[in-house]
Write a structure and sequence with these properties.
The complex is a heterodimer of chains A (about 450) and B (about 300).
Chain A: H1 2-28, E1 32-38, H2 44-47, H3 55-66, E2 70-76, H4 83-93, E3 99-103, H5 106-110, H6 124-129, E4 148-150, E5 153-162, H7 163-168, H8 181-193, E6 197-199, H9 208-222, H10 224-231, H11 241-255, H12 269-274, E7 278-284, H13 288-291, E8 298-301, E9 319-323, E10 325-329, H14 336-346, H15 349-358, E11 362-363, H16 370-373, H17 381-387, E12 391-393, H18 401-415, H19 421-438
Parallel strand pairs in A: 1-2, 1-3, 6-7, 9-12
Antiparallel strand pairs in A: 3-10, 4-10, 5-7, 5-8, 5-9, 5-11
Helix pairs in contact in A: 9-11, 18-19
Chain B: H1 3-42, H2 58-65, H3 67-79, H4 82-98, H5 104-110, H6 113-116, H7 119-129, H8 135-142, H9 156-184, H10 188-196, H11 201-212, H12 214-230, H13 233-239, H14 251-261, H15 266-297
The chains are: A alpha/beta (about 450), B mainly alpha (about 300).
Chain lengths: ~450, ~300
């Protein structure tokens, strides 16, 4: 018995010494491992391929080759909306990665307590070469601390349409796209008369007709300071005239019968668009590869201006979007310098060019040109590049997270008349006040 | 009592404690610790990160005063109607099989099928079935009942009906097997005597089977009620996600929403979980009290 005990203790001692030596060796050799969670570097079409063929796998190989002694241990996270929760759990457990791919704006703001400010690691050259730094600063304040590095590109909120169905209604959106709300409603009426569903989305799941399409009118009328202040409970939604007018117009889409009848519970409007049952759907530039299945029949327009004259509007002829993705560094990271170096590498001219060729978007690196992308003459990509020059930043990213979550859930009740406008705005004011009190 | 006997008893008691200690530690670790942790967190404004201030009973008063809480209670109570329905169907199936009614072998083979499917799968199937262009509406349209082909999952009332139907369907197997077990325990001499006395099928069902199944029904009710309060998450998630809005959200689903979807309100979510625990314990106590009283009446 005693012999076994002694043998056990000796084995334990040897194992412990072996581990200690291994750790010491790693430290002495100067090896650094940067851990990362990424999502948006791997587009849907790449998921079908073996991992070694993914762009990101190859980019990491190039980074490691260019930075001897640094290895990257990365994990693909398929649900970006869950990243704040996963990160919080990992932070509590002391296992948070160094570098994390998150949405810019309010998602990033909601986890700023566990992020490392990066001002000391960002160079003037970074600030000059990469666009979108205002979207990653604390509280979206141009003078706030830099909480992350904008990546990939600037995204756009658009409306995809079926050219054939639009032509059947006697319309030509290529030559004469609807430029005002009134013109858009006229087009909807013409489409409805042909028997197709003019405009569709799974609003019960995610209210994109509101957030990607109608909120452009809100930004035009109320402006971003008001949008942000409503979200943080400093001003009420219920007295925001621009918001109220936007809501009324949004509801008109439903009451006048221009939206899919089952919008509160549908889950397949994208497929209906591909199957010629729907004339238009709201979406983003990143969905082009999906809607491309319509071939030459796919077209794209942007959200129309709220009125023709521009009266009472802070700006016209823009498009919702902007840099929507960032890489952030966790507060407890021991390798912030290497983590930022990786972000910088991914934002370099050659890497960003390859990313934009893989999944079309306005390059985050200002030195990448349209010529290099080869988009000249492409009926849709050329529009993206032109529209991307004059962007109105994401309204959802500018809205406090608690309030946005509430809007996502209850917007469909307002749209379908199960909740009045007064009830809807009162609910948002209440949520904003509660979130402000909790802070 | 001699000193020797007393020493032996103490030794036995010690051994007894040592025997149950591993199980006790596991139970305390798995059950008691999370409950205690959730209770402590329910008294804070914990957001899962750094915010973790003691705020007393504020989460509880906020929840109990909010209209949402009473809507959750309403939804949960409406969904509770699935319990008598599933028991009724379970008893009916068990009697059919027990009585060897025509086709009983077929029923015996298929009635347990829903139980072996994942609840999430069943939920998604129901969501498809009751979709606006799903088989239910298509069938209604095919027979000229277009006005009944509605968006079932687009409002709270019909959404809850679909959830109840799903719960009844998924529990048929479990209820059936439970009731069949109860029927099998009935002394055959009672049934033989009843047959000799000329008891009809209806007499046997209402005067023998039901009274003899009361204890099983009582057990099934307690378990099903507790499950209806705490186990609906996969069904709600897959059929309606608690929507539209919060119209089909139940207490257990709201715990998830508050913790992970609506701004990291983990403190509030913990308070809601404690309220749910209190409700379930109270209901179970009431059910057991009623069942004890029923024993007295018998």
């Amino acid at each position: 018995m005693r012999e076994r005990l002694v043998m056990g203790l000796v084995m334990l001692l040897i194992t412990a010494m072996a581990f200690a030596t291994g750790t010491q060796e790693a430290q002495d050799s100067g090896e650094t491992t940067v851990t990362a969670w990424v999502t948006s570097y791997i587009p849907t079409q790449e998921l079908e391929k073996p991992q070694e063929e993914w762009y990101f796998t190859q980019a990491i190989d190039r980074f490691e080759a260019a930075n001897p002694g640094v290895t990257v241990d990365w994990t693909y996270q398929d649900s970006q909306s869950q990243i704040p929760n996963l990160l919080k759990a990992a932070e509590m457990a002391g296992t948070a990665p160094d570098l994390i791919n998150v949405w810019t704006g309010m998602m990033m703001q909601s986890i700023k307590d566990i992020l490392m400010p990066l001002d000391e690691y960002i160079t003037d050259d970074d600030l000059d070469t990469v666009i979108g730094w205002d979207t990653v600063r604390e509280n979206l304040d141009p003078n706030g601390a830099i909480l992350g590095v904008p990546i990939l590109g600037s995204e756009l909120c658009v409306v995809y349409y079926n050219k054939q169905l639009v032509q059947n209604a006697g319309l030509d959106f290529e030559a004469d796209p609807p430029e005002t709300v009134d013109e858009f409603f006229d087009a909807l009426a013409a489409l409805k008369a042909t028997g197709v569903t003019p405009f569709a989305h799974d609003e019960g799941r995610s209210p994109r007709i509101l957030v990607f399409f109608a909120w452009y009118w809100w930004a035009q009328q109320s402006g971003y300071p008001r949008i942000v202040s409503n979200g943080v409970g400093e001003t009420p939604y219920s007295t925001d005239e621009g918001f109220l007018r936007t809501l009324e117009t949004y509801r008109r889409l439903y009451t006048e019968g221009y939206l899919n009848e089952d919008l509160a519970s549908s889950q397949d409007t994208r497929e209906r668009m591909i199957n010629d049952r729907v004339a238009m759907v709201p979406g983003g530039n990143w969905q082009l590869s999906y809607y491309d299945r319509l071939g030459a029949d796919i077209g794209v327009i942007k959200s129309p201006d709220f009125n023709a004259t521009g009266d009472g509007l802070l700006f016209t002829d823009r498009i919702l979007g902007g840099p929507g993705q960032a890489l952030v560094v966790s507060a407890g990271s021991e390798n912030p310098e290497e983590a930022v170096a990786l972000a910088r590498f991914l934002n370099s001219h050659d890497e960003n060019l390859e990313q934009c060729l893989l999944n079309p978007r306005i390059p985050i690196n200002a030195t990448v040109t349209v010529d290099e992308l080869g988009w000249e003459g492409h009926p849709i990509l050329e529009k993206f590049m032109t529209w991307g020059q004059d962007i109105a930043f994401w309204v959802d990213n500018s809205t406090q997270q608690d309030v946005y979550s509430e809007i996502e859930r209850i917007a469909v009740l307002y749209l379908t008349g199960q909740m009045t406008q007064e009830e809807f705005t009162a609910r948002l004011d209440e949520t904003a006040a509660e979130a402000a009190a909790a802070r | 009592m001699s000193a020797r006997t007393s020493g032996l008893r103490a030794s036995e008691a010690r051994k007894g404690w040592y025997s149950v200690l591993p199980a006790l530690i596991i139970v305390l670790g798995i059950r008691a610790y999370p409950v205690a942790f959730a209770f402590v967190k329910s008294l804070t404004n914990w957001d899962g990160m750094l915010r973790n201030d003691f705020i007393g009973l504020r989460n509880y008063t906020y929840l109990l005063k909010s209209d949402d809480f009473w809507m959750l209670i309403r939804n949960t109570l409406v969904i509770l109607t699935n319990v008598p329905l599933q028991i009724l169907v379970g008893v009916a199936i068990a009697v059919l099989i027990f009585e060897r009614t025509m086709g009983w072998k077929f029923f015996r083979a298929v009635y347990y099928l829903p139980q072996v499917l994942s609840m999430a799968v069943v939920g998604y199937l129901f969501a498809i079935f009751f979709g606006y262009y799903g088989p239910v509406n298509e069938a209604l349209r095919a027979v000229g009942l277009d006005s009944l082909a509605i968006e079932w999952l687009g409002n709270g009332t019909t959404g809850l009906i679909v959830i109840i139907l799903c719960l009844v369907w998924i529990n048929i197997g479990w209820q059936g097997i439970l009731m069949l077990g109860g029927l099998s325990a009935i002394d055959t001499s009672i049934l033989d005597a009843a047959r000799i006395d000329g008891a009809t099928y209806r007499h046997r069902v209402f005067h023998i089977y039901f009274p003899m199944l009361l204890r099983v029904i009582e057990y099934s009710t307690i378990i099903s009620v507790v499950w209806s309060f705490t186990g609906l998450f996969p069904i709600i998630f897959s059929i309606t996600s608690g929507g539209p809005g919060y119209e089909t959200t139940t207490i257990d689903y709201m715990i998830y929403l508050k913790a992970f979807r609506l701004g990291n309100r983990l403190g509030e979510a913990c308070a809601l979980a404690m309220i749910l625990l209190a409700i379930v314990m109270t209901l179970t106590r009431i059910q057991m009290f009623i069942s004890d009283r029923m024993d007295d009446w018998r």
